[in-house]
């Protein structure tokens, strides 16, 4: 499926990738060493003694994985710009060898009031592990191209 324009989105419509992402021990440690060096992200012994009882991926790492998976979805929006992330929830720890997949659901859309060649899509993004547990969810607002600029006679 090709990329989708504003008009192609329907509220309630969901899209998911047919690929998942394997999170490795090495990647967890490498990412966290550079960006979030908490002991439960970079030291297996310290992680065992933590509230997580083992190594876990950093939250920023999960957001990065969600970004990568978002780009692999067929029919992703013809995005002009990201506008907002909201309600970011880290719901379950992600551990080495977890396989993550993404689902993007359109929750709202509206035509731009100031520029007729674009619209705004609101989505709910969820990252799920191999057991079906949602590990990350957040709301995303994206500025998306229209197929053709809106004219006064063409409506919304």
Q: Can you characterise this structure?
A:
- The chain has helices at 25-35, 39-42, 44-49, 59-70, and strands at 14-16, 21-22, 79-90, 99-111, 118-128, 134-145.
- The longest helix has 12 residues, at 59-70.
- It has a single domain, classed as Roll (Thiol Ester Dehydrase, Chain A), CATH 3.10.129.
- A hairpin with a 6-residue loop joins β4 (99-111) and β5.
- It is of the alpha+beta class and 156 residues long.
- Strands 1, 2, 3, 4, 5 and 6 form a six-stranded antiparallel beta sheet that branches.
- It is built from four helices and six strands.
CATH topology: Thiol Ester Dehydrase, Chain A
> Biggest sheet: strands, sense, closure?
6 strands, antiparallel
Q: What's the tally of helices?
A: 4
Following the backbone from N to C, one meets helices and strands in this order, namely EEHHHHEEEE
Instruction: Give the beta-strand count.
Output: 6
How does CATH name the architecture?
Answer: Roll
- Contiguous low-pLDDT stretches (5 residues minimum) are none
| End-to-end distance | 24 Å
Structural category: alpha+beta
Q: How would the blueprint of this fold be written?
A:
Blueprint: E1 14-16, E2 21-22, H1 25-35, H2 39-42, H3 44-49, H4 59-70, E3 79-90, E4 99-111, E5 118-128, E6 134-145
Antiparallel strand pairs: 1-4, 2-4, 3-6, 4-5, 5-6
Main attributes of the structure:
Thiol Ester Dehydrase, Chain A, 156 residues, 4 helices, alpha+beta, 6 strands
């Amino acid at each position: 499926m090709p990329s989708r324009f504003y008009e192609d989105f329907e509220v309630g419509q969901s899209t998911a990738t047919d690929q998942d992402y394997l999170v490795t021990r090495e990647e967890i440690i490498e990412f966290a060493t550079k960006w979030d060096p908490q002991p439960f992200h970079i030291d297996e012994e310290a992680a065992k003694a933590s509230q997580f009882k083992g190594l876990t991926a950093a939250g920023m790492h999960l957001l990065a994985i969600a970004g990568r998976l978002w780009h692999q979805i067929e029919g992703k929006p013809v995005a002009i710009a990201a506008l907002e992330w909201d309600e970011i929830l880290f719901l379950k720890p992600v551990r080495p060898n977890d396989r993550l997949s993404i689902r993007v659901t359109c929750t709202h859309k509206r035509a731009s009031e100031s520029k007729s060649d674009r619209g705004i899509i609101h989505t709910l993004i969820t990252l799920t592990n191999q057991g079906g547990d949602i590990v990350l969810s957040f709301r995303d607002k994206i500025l998306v191209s229209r197929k053709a600029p809106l004219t006064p006679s063409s409506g919304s």
